[in-house]
Amino acid sequence: MAEDRASEPPSIPSRASIPSGDNSVWADVSPLLHAACQDLQEGELIHGDNFNLFAAMSALEIMDPKMDSGIACTYYSLDEAIENGVAPVPVSADKTTDVQCVIDIMDHLLACEATWHKGHSLAQTVYSCLYLLRPERTLSHALLHSYCKVIRATCKAILSVVSEARTHEEEDLFTMSYGLPLSGDGDEKCLSLLNAVEETISRQLRSCKASSSKRRVSEDIEQLQNNPDLEEGYCKALLCRLRFRKHFYHLLMSMKRPQGRGLEMARKHIAACISEIDYIKKSSDFLRVNAHEMSKQNLENTTASVYLFQALEYFMKLLQDLDAICSCTLAPSLEAALLFVVKFQKSKPDLVARAHLQLLLVQDGKLYGRDPIFSMTTRAAGLPEVAEMHDIQKNEFMVQLGQLVINLLKILCTNAAWQRRKLGKMLQDWRVTYVQLEMAFKEEFEEASKTSNNKKVCFKIYQHILAWVEEQTYWIAFRFLNLGFELELYSVHDYCMVYWYTYVVLIKLAEKKHLRMSMSSDSAKKKTKKKRDSFKDGETDYQISAAVLFLQSQIYLSEGLSMMFAALRNEHRIVPLQSPFNTEHEIFVQQFELLQKACVPDHVSYATFKESTIHANFATLAICDYFKEAQRIAKEVKSSFANDPDTMAELRRIEQVAERNSIALNVCRAGALDPKLKISFAFCHHPFYATAIVKRS
Amino acid sequence: MPKWKNSRPIYVGHFRSFCCGQEMGHKGAEEEEMENVEFEASEIEYVSYGGEHHLPLIMNLVDQELSEPYSIFTYRYFVYLWPQLSFLAFHKGKCVGTVVCKMGEHRNTFRGYIAMLVVIKPYRGRGIGTTELVTRSIKVMMESGCEEVTLEAEVTNKGALALYGRLGFIRAKRLFHYYLNGVDAFRLKLLFPRSELHPSLPLMADKYESQMQSDQGDTPFK
Fold first, then answer.
1. Chain A: nearest CA to B104, how far in angstroms?
2. Minimal Cα distance from B67: which residue of A?
3. pLDDT for residue A443 is more than 90
4. Which among A227, A242, A548, B8 is most buried, taking Cβ atoms within 10 Å?
5. The N-acetyltransferase domain covers which part of the protein (chain B) (predicted)?
6. Are A315 and A372 within one domain?
7. What is the dihedral of CA A113, A117, A122, A126, to 10 degrees?
8. Which stretches of B120-197 are assigned E, i.e. beta strand?
């Protein structure tokens, strides 16, 4: 578009050249328009029959600087810019200035790359650099050429990971690459050229170090630039930048290897990248002092270094997130994988890291590209390995369940906002699949019961899988509710009902977990008893109750919070919302719409919520101290998780919140009539369990 | 409204509401610092959108306060199709606030949508935005048979969030990187009571059959 404008003077196409179509005849309307203009009043419009105001909103106003981004350009085409010397090769005839400018370009590109990762378009960020757009132009400049090559290759690699992991609109802008030259000639060999350039500069560095120590004057090596005093500094500044690119590219390639085989290697490159980032930071003082005149004159130099540091910060975070992914044990366990993603998401990783995790988790429809989802599901359901071979995996609803599991893994890798929405919608699918499986199993069971041997196996498989599907459904519902806190979707007025709903969901989750685990322990018991009567059974039982007890402590905490908010309201410490347009009932319907649609859990409604909270007051809370109970259980169960630092930390947080709320409640109770007592809530100890703070104003 | 987003060029921003209310429990300091104009509530005059002469006033106000580049067609879409849902607030002849809305069928629900709400700074915090402008629009939507009302607001716009919260809106969704500046938005929703849930409430106005709910409504242009 812009190019057309520049190359051709505006001309009116010859009218005769427009041929008439089957249903259309082209006619010159200029006289008509001219006549109509004479008659038009302000605000009037001439339009065809198919005109509508909705479509008109998409109109762009040409020459409005807010809408027409093109008018701000100095050049209307790439050729015009290049002809005017915007991107010269070499950047400067003076070798020192040239090196300085190349470093500026490198740093600028790094900042652009970070901006791209953060959700801007490739065209407006990395590819705003003219050197990237015409790969052949830099051929004569090995340093610049190698750097541009590796940048293009890196962008291409990241683009493919994000496109492959594509799950929603978040990537739309990211993956739009229009017709950009993402792969120049021989970009796949970008590393060999980069290595060669690195080798040359290393030799130049060695040579200048040798000559400065006056041990030996090497004549045969051409210097990087003209000023011998600055040679070492510039060599070092370039080397860390080149090496960062090299290791970063290696890292991406390692992570791409199937079945997570390159993770260990990737971690080595991550460590190398991090140390090069350190060197880049260290080189900035030298570069600032010796900045070339061009950048010294304007203030851009300072802003550029701010951008560089921000970009380096972004890359540090990205590297840490990628390192977290590479630390995955790849244990063949669905439960471990789900917990791993949830833990990974706590550090709020950006799109690029999340896309990498998703591709690691699900490859070729298998967990880590290695373990079939069916066998992972049966294992998660606590079934012995024989079940993995069972015909049941051919059942269409089992196939459907496998797809749901894959979708769940993918959804858990998306940003929290999207994730919550998708999890909420997914609940219905899990419910429907449960019902379908139940029906299918009944039919198959009747069929199988003809042979008594098969009957037992089938029955067990059905039981386990159904229990697991239910448990998983409530796990999703729990996460859905929790994410609402992270996304700040609830207001103080909603807390009472949200904690109440969390409480009822947690009860179900604990119940299903207990059922599923006791089924597994039954089969485990039978197995061990066959081998020998052992006292190990007791230990297994203890393990089971620990996981359920962990939930139990959260059940008490949620119930306690819900009752605390109800009591505060019933005792008039919190003024209820008085909307002129709706009531608490509508708020409830909206907040839990997706859960209610999926009947998660069954028989729960606004009426049940009201029934259980309407009578809550400080006196009843004194009798049944939920927070004390939560605290007690959390403390007790800790010993079972001595080897699990994440659960330990979570238990500590639960304890803290419970303890603080217990105290706050006592203060409220004691000062029930004190109007100066002000109560507020904060998420200072836990991301979704609120801590009450009581102050005398 | 995702449909709009897709049909519009990417660099045209989303509608948002901008109004400063007080945050719950945080009265005082902020309020005193604001350079408020002295006026009596009775001095503010509210009028429904009355024609093309009101358009520049609305555009001027929105352009001042919101960064998104709306073309005149965007304003016309709203005020021509749903003039009864747009209101202006005047103080001594000067336009100090406005609300622009629409309503229509959306996935089998008849829903209202608040596109823009602006009250100029010196007049904020006195209920012009909430009690008067927005409630007027919402009332008309309710009477026209809307089942719910939605809008988007920046997650950082605490004033607007508190304002709508008081009216019974919930934060139904968070929209990741919704605005051009990279800020997330909340999709706020107000659900009206359904008569079967509240048998004691009088029946809501019958659905406004003749309302031009669809986006392809007739245009009043020449």
1. 12
2. A66
3. no
4. A242
5. 42-193
6. no
7. 0
8. 148-154, 170-175, 185-191
